[in-house]
Amino acid sequence: MKPTFPVDSQLLKVLPRAGASLRSPDIRLPVLCSDADGYYLEMKVEADPNDQGEVELTRRIPLENLSEEDWENLKTYYENVDFKVCIERGISNGLENIDDTKLQRLFMALLTFLNPRQVAILIFLYREAAHQEEGPKVHFNSNELLETLGYTRSNSGCFPSNIRAQLNRDLVALHRTELVFPKAQKIDKETKPEYTDFVVKKLLTIEEFRVSNGPRQNFDWDKAADYTSELADAYTISLGFFEGLGRTGDYVLFADSIDLRQKNSSNTKYDYRMKLLIYLASRMRWDSLQDGQYLVISKQYLLKNLDLLGKNASRNNAIFWETVEELKNEGYVLEAQELPGKKKGQKIRFQINPEMLRCHQ
After folding, report:
1. Has residue 293 been placed in a domain?
2. How many structural domains comprise the chain?
3. Which neighbouring-strand residues pair with 336?
């Protein structure tokens, strides 16, 4: 049996929903809202009424230390965001009218939350947690993580400043953003889940950081995410989803050899391999594996969760099967086939390799 490490099942069940893109039919445009606890920038991902495995979920960023004047200014900036341009021409183009760097980066963090690169960072952290055996607390060196993500050093031996800054912004986005989702309680087998309570969780919390001796002794990771292009040399974080690795024993095992490298010169949204791998792991927790190894999933849901939502069905289909082939070549999927049926109800049956990906409960 190959060496493996566990990832919390509750996390895997919400990851695909929490990372839904702006183009998803389930997403609702960001809104500014406030309650007794403060101000928030948030996006809702609605549940698909045809799929009981998908739940409604909200991702939100608390906006701390806002005065009433700041709140009014923020509402003005919000009105300048062209979400149609974000969808059709790219998020950066849709945010170009916001000249406040902090607010622009806040919107960017929310709109691109849990992209495949950030998911790869999370998987790296769970693997480190298994190796370090300190519960939810994980220590790591930034350069080691950048190497694991497949980035290359410049001739000077350092990683480019834009790559380093990107890592800090990713970590801070994972630290700041809260997920709000329901606890489900089933009354009986014939009844849909009734939501009686809600969970509010962060994916991780940055506890400490370290910088080497030099001019960066005043480094502030929070401010750096909003205004500068800096990265600490090391971080200590606490993972927010960890009950499955302890009290409940509900987790999914991933092969230690998982490849987390980012494709050079490629936008992370095109990393369909990571999206499909995580979606399969997610479905393993809210579906029952048939005969121990098989998953049967609607092709419609597969394409939606891979963000293959364009009108070019032939292109979407080609990308989907190329992605399946990638996972077959890596050993996660032993076989995948389209089952007979009507076009709108097409289903794909996957045979999952338990040496690379398996449930524990």
Report:
1. yes
2. 1
3. 350
